[in-house]
Amino acid sequence: MAAQNPSIPRGMRDFGAKEMMLRNYIFDTIRSVFQLFGYQPLETPTMENLTTLMGKYGEEGDKLLFKVLNSGNYIEKASEESYQDYKKLTAIIAEKGLRYDLTVPFARYVVMHRNELCFPFKRYQIQPVWRADKPQKGRYREFYQCDVDVIGSKSLLNEAELVKVSDTVFSKLGLNVVIKINNRKILAGIAETIGNPDKLTDITVAIDKIDKIGVEKVNIELSEKGLSEKAIEELQPILKMNGNNADKIHIISKLLKNSEIGMKGIEEIQTLFDLLKKQQIKAEYEFDLTLARGLSYYTGAIFEIKAKDAQMGSICGGGRYDDLTGIFGMPDMSGVGISFGADRIYDVLMELKLFPNEVQSSTKVLFVNFGENEANYCIEMASVLRENQISAEVYPDATKLKKQFSYADTKKIPFVVIAGEEELKNQTLKIKDMNSGSEAIISAHELVNFFKK
Question: What is the distance, to the nearest Å, from the Cα of residue 377 to the centroid of all Cα atoms in its chain?
Answer without folding.
Answer: 45
